[in-house]
Amino acid sequence: MRVLLIAISTIIFFGQPTTAEAQPPVETAARFAAEAQALMRAGDVDSAITKFVIAFAHDPNPQHLMNLARAYDAKGSTTAATHLYRRVAEWQPGTRLSSQARSRLAQGRGSAPTSQQNLTLTVIPPGATVRIDGRLIGKAPIPPVALSAGPHNVTIEMPGYQTQNETIQMTGSTPVSKLITMRAGSSTPSPAENLQIVGLPAGASVAVNGQAIAAQGNIAAVQLRPGLYTVRITAPGQPTFVSTVTIGSGRQTVAYRAGGVSHSHAAARSGPSTSLVGEWFGQEQPDAWEDRRSQSARLSMESERRGILTIQQSATLPRWKQRQCGGAQTLSWTVKYAVRLEQMTGSGKLFGSVVNLECSCEGQCRTDDLIEWDLLIPSNKNSLVHSRYLFQRMRGSTPPAYPVRKQPDLIGISGAWQIQWGTPGEVQQASAMLTGGSKEFSGIAKFNQTTTLARWRRKDCGGKTDLTATQHYKITATLDGDRVTVNFEHEKSENCNCAESACVAAGTTANLPSGDYYLSLDGTALINASATISK
Prior knowledge:
Elements: H1 3-14, H2 25-42, H3 45-58, H4 62-75, H5 78-91, H6 96-106, E1 116-124, E2 129-132, E3 135-139, E4 145-148, E5 150-157, E6 164-170, E7 176-181, E8 193-198, E9 205-208, E10 211-213, E11 215-216, E12 219-224, E13 227-234, E14 241-247, E15 252-255, E16 262-263, E17 278-284, E18 293-301, E19 306-316, H7 319-322, E20 330-344, E21 347-359, E22 370-376, E23 383-385, E24 389-393, E25 415-421, E26 428-436, E27 440-452, E28 466-480, E29 483-494, H8 500-508, E30 515-519, E31 525-528, E32 531-534
Parallel strand pairs: 1-7, 8-15, 14-16
Antiparallel strand pairs: 1-4, 2-3, 2-5, 5-6, 8-12, 9-10, 9-13, 11-12, 13-14, 17-18, 17-24, 18-19, 19-20, 20-21, 21-22, 23-24, 25-26, 25-32, 26-27, 27-28, 28-29, 29-30, 30-31, 31-32
Helix pairs in contact: 1-3, 2-3, 3-4, 4-5, 5-6
């Protein structure tokens, strides 16, 4: 994708700061670039990338592109860095900046980050005992410590002072310096707690925050101070397994599973969930299928706001492209995005930037550098609905074969449900009471409606500009193959602030989510691209 589009898209995603309107674009860009450089020095590469992109959007100067390329380079996103270096090299051939970009390309399409970088700790007062990831380092002052990329737990203890626990994030590309000032008080250390890792396959290697842990049979255990830890397990013939765990609330157990990323949270229930953290499998909604391309997705939410989105795609190659790809008839590629989720009532927006692209035929795969997805988030938080993908919680190591039930039934559908439809920030919500059997159900739904009235209709409302009412609808639905066809029919209006005719008209013309739905795998939701009906 063109870098200018990246910049414009990012401005749309994040919004221009209000202070920028009072400054010339060049000065505004310089301010964002300076902030980005400071973030780079602090090791926050992701935030620096955002600032550099905004700087370029204000002032399309090749220097800002060069800065952005270096940031992606530091992060290890060689595909993005290479693309940007090429843009800079071609922008003004013969200039110093172009020469620098060509030099970086000659070094191998961007440099990968080193595996370790130094952490420099300054502790006041000196003499405190320093442990990193439970390993004794010594008494402060200590020399710089080489650490791998990822979170590391630092514990500092000293008689007469409170024990300090810090989680420090290492990028693997930038040294980190940290000043810690001890606070007077009790020196009772935080108790160590047991982390147990079970189900290890033969030949597995285990590391916690980069430190190797010995295994006994299919189990490994280690005592850790409170903090955030990353468990990494490698096994012959299997993808690397990664799990994040927080020590501080009793003994924690991580269960290995083949297939890669996992988390140590409790398994999702069929009933309502309170958290989005965990593993999600997304497959194209049936109405989004294409004849020549198939797509599936995995979403690993590390927190309520941050995660990794992995999209796998394949497409049939035309004959003239098969020759370019060694005779292969199918092109497949995998793209990973670092994503953040902004939640709203019943909905959210997922923003992402590409961090890695793998392609079965180099040069033939195309993907969006940035994404902005509108999501519906049902009240039970057991599914996430995008116009193309339906995400459902993983309940084991094997992704479901279909995003919805292939041969569903409606047994157990009776009860109270919530209906959500609309767009993020404008979600309409209604409650429903349903009764039904295996092939059909019916019920009553109601929601509070607020509608801006056309001028000609305001005379029916005593001059009011808005109509408010509680609208009631009869719901009928039938099971047809693997779909549930749902219909809403207006019954009555209550608590209306306008004439009855205006309230009925508003109720019958409301954009209700009638249409075809699919029953989720856990039976807790009826879903289509624009609405969910969930327990």
